[in-house]
Amino acid sequence: MKIVLLFFCLIVAGVSSADAQTSNPTPVGRWQVKFTLIDTSEKNLVFTAQDTGDGSFQLLDTGPDNKPVSNPHAAAWSFTKGNLSISGEVELQTGQCCRETGTLIFKAKLVSNNSISGKLIFVTNIDEEESPYKYHATAGTFSATRLTEK
User: Fold this and answer.
1) pTM (two decimals)
2) Domains defined along the chain, listed by start
3) N or C: which end of the chain has fewer CB within 10 A?
4) Lowest mean pLDDT across 6-20, 48-62, 88-102
């Protein structure tokens, strides 16, 4: 009887462990994002993802003189087959002199339920004749960690 009980406990523990390992990560929540575009210093924002695919960017140091931007910017996200896409309209400094508006696009895989890393691209609203797409764009990298609710 003790052997059967021990065997049953091991099976239950194994199933519980497998369920915990296969739980699907989700981007829903708040994320501290650090990103760097080519020729710029590291910048920070908080991305808030709602379960509807809507979200917002709270830009922490991307305003003029590296100050916070007071109002959050609308964003959208999708998570399909393990691929996460996040985008929203923002104004950022590009290079050493100029500020431009455009679409900030993040592409990544969830590293874990609490960590994201990947690439980003900022496509400005400025026409650029030399570009095959007719818009100026710059790329970079980012990492994000989930913010815990207090």
Assistant:
1) 0.79
2) 24-146 (2.40.128.120)
3) C
4) 6-20
Interatomic CA distance for residues 9 and 15, integer angstroms: 10
| Contact assessment for residue 48 and residue 30, using Cβ atoms and an 8 Å cutoff | yes
Of 57-61, 112-116, 121-125, 128-132, the one with minimum mean pLDDT is 128-132
Give the separation between CA 145 and CA 54, rounded to whole angstroms. Answer: 19
Beta-carbon contacts of residue 47 (< 8 Å; ≥ 6 apart): 30, 31, 33, 55, 56, 57, 58, 75, 86, 144
**Are the CB atoms for 112 and 25 separated by under 8 Å?**
yes
Residues in CB range of 68: below 8 A, 6 or more apart: 58, 59, 60, 61
Q: How far is Cα of residue 28 from the mean position of the Cα atoms in its chain?
A: 10
Segment 33-49 shows an average pLDDT of 94
Residue 133 in this model has a pLDDT that exceeds 90: no
User: Residue 2, SS3?
Assistant: helix
